[in-house]
Design brief:
Helices cover 35% and strands 20% of the residues. The termini are far apart. The strands form twelve sheets. Strands 10, 11, 12, 13, 14, 15 and 18 form a seven-stranded mixed beta sheet that branches. A four-stranded parallel beta sheet has the order 2-1-26-27, covered by helices on one side. It has a four-stranded antiparallel beta sheet with strand order 6-5-9-19. By secondary structure, the chain is of the alpha+beta class. The radius of gyration is 32 Å and the shape is globular. It contains 28 helices and 39 strands.
Length: 868
Amino acid sequence: MTARDRRYEPKHVEARWQQAWEERGCFAARESDARPKYYALEMFPYPSGRIHMGHVRNYTLGDVLARYKRARGFNVLHPMGWDAFGLPAENAAIERGIHPAIWTRENIATMRAQLKSMGLSYDWSREIATCDPSYYKHEQRMFLEFLEAGLVYRKESWVNWDPAEHTVLANEQVIDGRGWRSGAPVEKRLLAQWFLRMTAYSEDLLDSLARLKRWPERVLLMQENWIGRSEGARVNFALRAKDGSVLDPVEVFTTRPDTLFGASFLALAPSHPLALRLAESDPPLAAFIAECNRIGTSEAALETAEKRGYDTGARAAHPLGGTNALPVYVANFVLMEYGTGAIFGCPAHDQRDLDFARKYGLPVVPVVLPPDADAASFSVGVEAYTGDGTIFNSTALLDGLDVAAAKRRAIDELARLGRGASAVTWRQRDWGVSRQRYWGCPIPVIHCPDCGVVPVPLADLPVVLPEDVSFDRPGNPLDHHPTWKNVACPKCGRAARRETDTFDTFFESSWYFARFCSPHEESRGFTRASADYWLPVDQYIGGVEHAILHLLYSRFFTRGLRACGYLGIDEPFDGMLTQGMVCHETYRAADGRWLTPDEVDKAEDGSRIERASGAPVTVGRSEKMSKSKKNVVDPARIIEEYGADTARLFMLSDSPPERDLDWTEAGIDGAFRYLKRLWRMVTESAGALPQPNSPAPARIEGGALELRRRAHRAMFNVTEDIERFHFNRAVARVRELTNAIDELAGDEPGAAWALREALETAVRLFAPMMPHIAEELWRELGHADLVAEQAWPAPDAALIAEEQVVYPVQVNGKRRGELRFAKGADRASVEAAVLDLPFVRAQLDGKAKPKVVIVPDRIANVVIEGAK
């Protein structure tokens, strides 16, 4: 059979090279290596049963980077593991009658095989699963050391209670007032909970964001807003009950002390101590509070709920001497967890307060006069005025001052009167880690009636989950277990009770990146030496949906581990890449059923019909692939039909990694056609080429010389593109090179040698992206070694030299930097590079697309409305 007759068979080719890499130990990482280290990590998956296209994209991006860095001479750590605790395993136990551990292990085995079929360059010797006692015993020890260091405490707290899953949810896990997994309406409950003292590091977590130079701007902004530093004042309001008796004063935190003379009411959170005390003698108030408790404690729940209040009859004296007493309400939109659990309402300058005041007929007194407005006629209608201006209607104390000066004057006067002081508060709260479920890490404490809370001795770790549990009734199976919770107190020996709550599963994922450094270490989770060598993670890759929860928890955990001597670093992840979602059209049958892509065909007229019935199908917009709308494509089918390299190529070439990707059958077909074309190009030429590593001939001219230039420019450009995560551009550069091979291959002096160099260059540049076919073609080109072990190709400076020009880059006419381009570079390339500059991206944040004015070979000016 000739090379022309042979077909590319990905199924056989890919399995063969996966075995070869494993036998050679190509991807094993060792600390003893003299090369510089590089730690590449993608967020590890929950073992739900099968990988999905989001996994394929995420792990392909990380694999390209890991293989590229290895070829560039780095000692690469690229591990994989399983975020294996969680409620879906318990749900499976209930629905299918299978133990969570068995369900989880079976899923891990299935998904491991699927990931291996993708040809990912993981060091599988470092594989971890967070449900293993060998893993979670270390976090139990960390918890106890955090407890000793004052970073853990227990208190009664109002929590988000998911009545379907019978567990507590963090505020971030409540979406639109519902549990993020169950979808059930969330309620408030008062429970004793374990907390990690994240607020001890709020200022550090905020200030350190400025040092994360390789994180996306939107992720940094999301973290900044979540941490939420606010400067203002704490103000004390003297109160009297409706019977005239004196009540304890209420403290309010406000960022707008300048608007105190516009106050028309006070509002307390339903769980505020004063609200609960007043409710003891006011049954309607008690009923109102009970109703509020059914909303949930998250901001999202309160934002969507109707704003309601209950007038307690109590009245507050104005702290700056205002003449009118302020009514004191209990309101469903005030959170006990934020500020002090009490607010003063200034309706004229806060929309929520205005809506509340209009509903209950309260005064609306403007105290900030907009520029150019007339004080005698200015009033507030249906929209609060929240802009800057001059203070008025606020007595001689503040009238005539601007907002900033009025804030300072009001705080000074409050301090003089002993009724307040300047203060800083944080939106971020401490992390409640208690969960009322079985399939999680047991919290290692014991409750003794005499000794109180007693840590489990280190020698008794791990506290292992019992296997003989049942899920035949609601609630936590650990509470129902007949023996597991019963234990002797380590201090006094008397009968005591284990803590039956388990950790929030974010606990495990907040330190797993460190466990990969020495996953077989038995004493403290990882050795300090291995952590000092590998950490921080050089490049972390995952979805933007984890920008607040996981990333912020991991940053806190790193600080806690540093305080306890485990780590010497400040930040866990030096670089962060958030990939976009994989999307697909949605299909709906005439009766409203969602249809999978496999259930839909294209009719002769181009419309879509249901495959089973031929009935018309409504095509919806492209959305994130989801089981609920059935617009999912099974990666296993794609790999079986087209091969892993085809799936990888499509994931890389269709769009930039940070943007959403639309999956289409036409796209995957096109990627497969290109692989077959590349196969034919190499196999049909290999027999006529000089031997591998042959010296360059003395003369290389004409098209052969130009082909060399194109190959070396491809080396340079692909290197630049991968370094900048422009993977789609990198693919395009290599495809341009293969087009040039078709265009320029000839018979002039040096043509065969130049053709070999160009083909080998294409194969080596594609090796991180399509590793299987790259190995096969490397072998076809006569090499006996592995392309996975080849150094990255380095361009010859003489062959890529072009006349270059310097473009000064301006923003709104002010010079901010410069870029170098080949003379005559096309306008689109210059504009794309200019818009990618960090100082331009920073100015663009949240603004409309700017106008880019380019004077060819001379200057580029970005016009951004509202930029500084």
